[in-house]
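Submission checklist for the structure archive. All mandatory fields must be present; incomplete records are returned to the submitter.

[x] Identifier: Lipoprotein
[x] Organism: Stomatobaculum longum
[x] Residue count: 202
[x] Sequence attached
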Amino acid sequence: MKKKYGVAVAIAALAAVLAAGCGAKKAESAASAAESTAAAMSSAGESAASDAASKGESAASEGEKKLADFKAEDFKAGDDITAQAEAAAQMLAEKHEKLTVADGTYQVNVTLSGGSGRAKIASPTELTVKDGRATAKIVWSSDKYDYMEVEGIRFTPEIQNGHSVFMVSVTELDKPLAMVGDTTAMSTPHAIDYQLTFELQK
């Protein structure tokens, strides 16, 4: 009886060893499968990130192209904003001397400074002189500008094809002029200080 009992114990021990070995192999197999899955996911993630970066660069490039493409000559200033600018020019006449430029319409280069540098305005643009007082057409790269201010006088725009179009008074040439542009592109409107310089094309 003791012999049979001893044999049974030996068989049970052997079965336990074999079971442990099978479990270890399954664990190794599962670990290997997990590593393969992680590697595949990592590769897929890197590929997705690369694709996203590529699309982002393409979108930025396309955005820059669109900014470069718009021209002031493609936008017409309506009667309302033109009258608004002419009235402002007369209001500022007492504070500024007349321009030493003959009456007429000119092409001027416009340099914009201030702000984040992301917004652009079309250059060259049109400058009109009447009785020594000038007004200029300003076309922004965005339609989010809801007003501009020059020396405390507010100008409202016309929205044309995704661009804010203004007519503003210009009191001097070849000199930076302080102007404010209010943008609604962010969660709350922001009035941004800019300087615009108008130079007659040679």
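[x] Structure attached
Curator remark: The chain is about 40% helix and 30% strand. Residues 72-200 form a domain with the Immunoglobulin-like fold (CATH 2.60.40.1850).
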